[in-house]
Structure formats: structure tokens, C-alpha cells
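Two entries, shown back to back:
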Amino acid sequence: MRSTHDAFHVAVPTHDLDEAVRFYVFGLGAKLARRYDDRVTFDFFGDQLVCHLDPAAVAVEPVEYPRHFGVTFARAEDFDRLLQLVEHRKLRVLSGPATRFEGTAEQHRTVFLVDPSNNVLEFKQYDDPRLQY
């Protein structure tokens, strides 16, 4: 089982390492962990995100489904702070913010962002914190 000392790892392609750093560090506030000629690693909300330099693998157009990654916030205040950051730093929004499954047990707020290499990120927060997982 995962402990609080373990980190989830996800890797995505990028066409430009400098743009990835600008978006994730200076846009979203991730911490730069390591940088190499072919990849950059971030502390992304406590987990590990690696952007690999692979322009041929970059999506031509961003789409929400099926491939995206992100964070499900436990607290509404944290989701609200992210929305303020997105607005303040004028980060590229694919869709939202919106409420999905309104009136059901699965009701949650969501926003989809797009990084400079068309990787799609979803940030969300459920009304019922038991549905975070």
C-alpha cells in the first residue's frame, strides 16, 4: 500500500522543456525537481510529473477524454485558490470551471487546463469528500 512518503508518477510528452518549466513552475507553482537534456521532473502537488522531450508524441489538438491527469482537491478552498491562480496567471483553459453531475452524489466542480504541449490537466473537487478517490 502507498504511504505518505511515496509519490505517484506520471510522464507526458513535451515539445519544449523551457515552456514546460514556465507552465508548471511559474504557472501552476510546481517545484522543479530535476532537469536533463531530454526531460524535466516536477514535484506536482506532492507527486512526480516528468515531461519528456518528444515533439512527435505531442497531441495536435487537446481533448479532455480519455487522456488527462490532474488533482482532486479534498477542500473547496484549495480548488477556489487554483481557480484564482488560473485567472491571475491567465493559464489556458480548455473547459470550465463547471459543475458536473449536478444534483447527484457525484456532484463536483471541475476545470480542464492545457499545457503548452497540449497535455490536458483536470482539477476537481467533490461536494462529498468520500468520493475523492
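entry 2 starts here
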Amino acid sequence: MSDNLSLKAFVVLLKASKSIEELIKKDISSHGMKSSDFAVIEAVYSKGKQTIRQISEAVLINTGSITYVIDKLENNGLVERINCKEDRRVVYIQITDKGKELMDEIFPKHQQVIESLFEGISAEEKEIVINVLKKVGKKGETIR
């Protein structure tokens, strides 16, 4: 019986993930951005300047692809590269004033879309979802 529940939980998780991903892509594209662009600019908007590696790990985009995304964002004046004074090999990515203005406008709207996904779900239920998904994710890392 638990095997059937595990399979059912897996299928429900995948379907929910796909549904949420489609909603988020639609929301982000309504602001004239691609998901990868939004993920990168949101990372530096929320956390401040970061290295390309830090951003890559945070947004789950490989470093080869992320350079292309950062180049586009930089060409649009939304982020800028800053060389590290202590280590010439390190380059930081920082949001520009133009990028901050854009995110100040669109991020609250994006956050509201996410909030609407969880309407009617109690704080306790959200905590349960968070904890269960963390356990599943950690288990997945050990099985590899």
C-alpha cells in the first residue's frame, strides 16, 4: 500500500510542479522577460551582488548558459559586472538602478501570483509541505 502512495505522491508532485511552472512562466512573460532572465535578476535583486557561480547555484542554471543570460541583462542595463579588487578571477554581478526600478515594479505582482497559489492553505500546511519536500529532495540526493 505504501508503494502505491509513494507513486501517487510522485505523480501528484510532478503534475503540481508542471502546473506551477507554466503559471510562473506565463506571469514572467507578461512582464516581457524569460524565466532565466527573471531568475538571475531576482537573485541579485533579493541577495545583492553575487558571483556568477553563486547565481548559477541559486537559480539552477549551468554556468555556460548563465553567462549568456547575464550578457543580455547587462546589454539591457539591468545588471552590471564588477571586478573583485582582491581576486582578479572573481567577477560580481550587481543589479543596476534601472534593474532595481524594474524589479520594484514587477516583483510585488509576481509575489502576488505566488501568494494566490497558496490561498486557503494554512501556515501549518505550508510548513508541512516545506518540510516534506525538503525530505524528499534530500533523499533524492542520497539515492543518486
